[in-house]
Sequence to fold (510 residues):
Amino acid sequence: MMMMISKNLKSLSFELQKSRYISSSKIPFLSLHTNPQDHKYEDIQVDAIYNIISNSTSSQNLKQSLKSTGVFLSNDLIDKVLKRARFSHGNPLQALDFFNFTANRRGFYHSSYSLDTMLYILGRSRRFDHIWDVLIDIKRKDRNLITPRTLQVVLGRVAKVCSVRMTVESFWKFKRLVPVFDTSCFNALLRTLCQEKSMSDARNVYHRLKKGFRANLQTFNILLSGWKSSEEAELFFDEMKELGVKPDIVTYNSLIDVFCKGRELEKAYGVVEKMNEEGILPDVITYTSIIGGLGLVGQPDKARDMLKEMKEHGCYPDVAAYNAVIRNYCIAKRLDDAYSLMAEMTSKGMSPNATSYNLFFRVFSWSNDLRNSWDFYGRMMDAGCLPNTQSCMFLIKLFKRNEKVEMALQLWNDMVEKGFGSYILVSDVLYDLLCDMGKLVEAEKCFLQMVEKGHKPSNVSFRRIKVLMELAKKHDAIQNLSEKMAIFGSSIRAPESMDEKECSDPVPSL
Fold:
């Protein structure tokens, strides 16, 4: 198989370009039958290189296979291959072998995107020792590739499984790695804590470390963006003014959002008045927050009127604003009004997005309304709006609840054909349904389709299919599926509960 991939790739080889960063679109195509504007050609390369990585048995085997292709691995191509590795949940150490092989070529420098993607892949599998090895190597070669975004990628993975203390200790290690350890790095830490821990953790770390950094507008916008307590948000807003940091529209919108979510509409209106006094015009985000707040206090009709008010002030509603009003009507179970709003949005040239449809799918799921869910899914596909993972989960769970195998398989086949949704999340529910209904042939087919797309089925699903196949004495099929699973390597998931001792790896001595 490896030889076949290499042979096919040889016919797609590029001429070498003498440049540090080279866009693959600038490299001449050797095939006269290939249109340089056709992205399918590049997709073939990405798939082929990824297959080589996934099927490699050792670093040396990978190196030889890649060299034998004759394909020039440009920065653009490497970026796309690593992106594929990230979303395919493949073996992280195989991806690292590829990253190191390309990095070791004379005169070659990875892009910041490749670096951050590789670190994300390693962090997701909790390979923190390898993360720091990569960063130390990059520091020696070109430390300018290590950016505040890199810091946020690493800290985000550390924060998912380790304590706040360990996250902060990892933050300090970057002082020796980044070119400039400044407020932008501090902001990356705060953003990580807001996303992965709690706003209280972010607040405490801010107060503990703020003397070492000069807080700026972005610092306070980060801290104001996630509060559910208006009191906490107002304290930060007051501190911001005391430090002489002038608020912008992002600041005011964050404050308005807090008040609206807390059902404090009068305070939100007060902030809008203050914005007008300062010459800062409310934007579509401002109005969308207020629309959401009106829905929370049971005033969906007033929220709809807000769409007209926006236009009178020269601010035209977008899809997100319409979705906010539709959400209010869906919560109030006034679906006819919600339908009319979606029609109005379409008549104004705005296409409903996956979020628009999900608002209805949620209501249908609550009421176990299979018919309307299926009809709405058809309308969504006909309109060319691809479902997202949330859409797929609403549907597949409803199909399982009603034991609708054909509908579930139709959704799955659409996912495979058009490439939307999370294969891993949807497949777990799908395999449960197929196994419950004794559809082993269909389960095996879906399993193989998933593997061919480069996605690893969960160990739980694999074990369930395997048990049923053993009962059916399908030993050849079991052997085939076991070999497919082996391609992805052994499971590297750590326990769900990890104490600080187990999290000591993220912070080695540099």
